[in-house]
Design brief:
246 residues; mainly beta; Jelly Rolls; 19-stranded mixed β-sheet; 2 helices; 21 strands; 5% helix; globular
């Protein structure tokens, strides 16, 4: 299978109340045996274990592989993974921890899916070719090796990935990939068409670049962007400040 990671660099989708609760800092480790621990909540934050129903979740709660989390209006949620990586959801966001394996010698395989909203990811360095860290949406996937990025699922279905540090490999693989096939092979998909190598796009976005994958699977070339300052949306600046918390 073609390697989908970039040496030296994951994806921000951007990468998802009123009272604020904070009893753990970013330096806190995930609960023993758990995939992640909730380290910050604001407003309405919920968790569903596996395919179960959603219920409220508070700071200190442990999350396992297969769990889902979501936020309400004017809400935020922060998770610390077992390896020290941090994921944050903005308001009206939903995320599933699809797979989380943290082995010896810092090897790990992590995969999360963002169904709606915005995600910020600060990822610790991956070690070895057996490690991977990916965030998916319905039409895109971002893979990294240790960086800060944000991902966002727009109302119309487009996915936006912004990279703040390092590099992120962005692909429209979720639309075109089938188990057992590679990018170089032609794959029959639903409808009277075939997917060619040209349609399956992978590209690298570097620091302070943004890539958009449309709902139809079209991938834009990386473009430079500037961080938002001021205004009503403090999502970027808030995350930068949280990343400094030890």
């Amino acid at each position: 299978m073609q390697r989908r990671l970039v040496q030296g660099g994951l994806f921000t989708l951007g990468l998802v109340g009123v009272a604020v609760t904070l009893v753990a800092t970013r330096g806190s480790a995930a609960a023993p045996g758990a995939a992640a621990t909730v380290t910050f909540t604001k407003g309405t934050t919920e968790r569903a274990a596996g395919s179960g129903e959603y219920g409220s979740v508070a700071t200190g709660a442990a999350l396992n592989e297969g769990d889902r989390v979501r936020t309400g209006a004017a809400s935020r949620l922060e998770l610390k993974l077992k390896d020290g990586s941090v994921l944050r959801l903005a308001d009206k966001s939903e995320l599933k921890l699809q797979s989380a394996s943290f082995g010896p010698k810092e090897k790990k395989r992590f995969d999360a899916k963002l169904f709606a909203g915005r995600l910020w990811a600060a990822v610790t360095k991956l070690v070895g070719n057996d490690s991977s860290f990916e965030v998916e949406t319905t039409n895109a996937v971002a893979g990294v090796r240790g960086t800060r990025f944000a991902a966002a699922v727009e109302p119309g279905g487009d996915t936006t990935v912004r990279v703040y540090d390092g590099s992120v490999l962005v692909s429209n693989r979720p639309i075109y990939a089938k188990e057992g096939h590679t990018k170089a092979k032609r794959v029959q998909v639903a409808g009277p068409q075939e997917v060619t190598k040209k349609q399956w796009t992978e590209l690298v976005a570097s620091a302070m670049q943004v890539v958009k994958v449309t709902a139809a699977g079209d991938v834009s070339q990386p473009q430079s962007f500037a961080m938002t300052t001021g205004g009503d949306d403090d999502w970027e600046s808030w995350n930068v400040e949280r990343d400094q918390v030890k």
